[in-house]
Write a structure and sequence with these properties.
Order of helices and strands: EHEEHHE
Structural class: alpha+beta
CATH architecture: 2-Layer Sandwich
Shape: globular
Helix content: 25-40%
Largest sheet: 4 strands, antiparallel
Length: 103
């Protein structure tokens, strides 16, 4: 499995709005080709969310990173005063080529 995690830290007053946006977006991402899982994770005592997605292939993950859904995820984070960071989770066995995020 090829996986990515997006760590999103919203402005405190925008926390609930961003959570609802991320949950709706996760539903749409789950329908994307090659998506095995997409979940919004949060800790009640923390101020950040983690959106974790798993993909059947490296090509599926790369396609997601170029998708409208990923652009919406990035845009919603910025629009709602959040900072976001994307990290790639190691698959077993690790993929042969690293994935880079378009900027």
């Amino acid at each position: 499995m090829h996986a990515a995690a997006c760590f999103v830290r919203p402005a405190p007053e925008k926390r609930e709005e961003l959570l609802q946006t991320l949950r709706s977006l996760a539903v749409a991402i789950r329908a994307d080709p090659g998506c095995l899982v997409c979940a919004v994770c949060l800790e009640e005592t923390s101020t950040f969310f983690i959106v974790v997605s798993g993909w059947a292939s490296d090509a599926d993950l790369r396609g997601h990173l170029r998708s409208e859904h990923f652009r919406v995820l990035s845009g919603a984070s910025r629009l709602l005063g959040a900072s976001a960071e994307v990290r790639f989770l190691a698959s077993h066995p690790p993929s042969e080529s690293p994935v880079s995020v378009p900027t």
